[in-house]
Specification:
The protein is mostly helical and about 220 residues long. The protein has helices spanning about 1-5, 10-20, 40-60, 65-75, 80-85, 95-115, 135, 145-150, 160-180, 190-205. Helix content is about 55%, strand content about 0%.
Length: about 220
């Protein structure tokens, strides 16, 4: 594909390594450069964003029947995986604790996908979701449709997305290493990096389903 000629993973690795180091984030040299990308279609990414937006309402204690109704009316039920369908059949507080934690963190993926789709320009390694998020996504309680978000979702420059994924991949090593060795850095937040990186991996590598993405470093 023409755009893959523009994406040079080795050069991007070198550039990000220098930039991260100059900002105080140590990066090891032997972390490989990333594989050539095969991006998902914008509509598929936008639908995944809407599914996560609906499921995040479970964390906000929204009634499951309202969430299900919204997903059905917006033609999104077919895009949930088995585990996600199960979430809709179980009382939120009866879900295993890890599932509840996973659903809580969906908000970081939603924020990342909103960046991928050009809705905001503030994707960091260490700060939480912006206050603007609620205005960028449909209000399910008011039954606002998904179609507006999906039609407005336009993939930003693919080189920029790939560079961002590469940066998160390298910073993930630093954040995880800090976690393992008991070090602290206000420049990274491991949980935020993991959730945002997952959304970027989903965007850049279409061969992996949402629940198959590996976050190795």
């Amino acid at each position: 594909m023409w755009f893959q000629k523009k994406i040079k993973p080795e050069k991007i690795k070198d550039r990000n390594t220098k930039q991260l180091r100059s900002s105080g984030i140590e990066v090891i040299e032997h972390l490989p450069y990333l594989d050539n990308p095969e991006f998902r279609e914008p509509e598929e990414i936008a639908r995944r964003t809407m599914v996560l937006t609906a499921l995040f309402q479970l964390h906000l204690q929204a009634p499951r029947d309202i969430i299900k109704k919204w997903l059905k009316e917006n033609g999104l039920m077919d895009y949930l995986n088995e585990e996600e369908l199960e979430y809709l059949e179980t009382e939120y507080l009866e879900l295993p604790e890890q599932n509840q934690i996973d659903i809580y963190w969906y908000v970081e993926a939603i924020w990342t996908f909103a960046w991928v789709g050009g809705f905001h320009n503030n994707l960091t390694l260490n700060t939480g979701v912006g206050d603007s998020l609620a205005s960028l996504i449909p209000n399910i309680a008011k039954n606002e449709p998904a179609k507006n978000f999906i039609s407005e979702f336009k993939l930003r420059n693919q080189v920029e997305i790939f560079e961002m994924l590469d940066k998160f991949y390298r910073a993930h090593w630093f954040a995880r290493n800090n976690n393992l060795t008991g070090k602290q850095s206000d420049k990274v937040d491991l949980d935020i990096i993991m959730e945002r990186r997952k959304a970027l991996e989903y965007t850049v590598y279409k061969e992996f389903d949402w629940n198959e993405i590996s976050l190795d470093t």
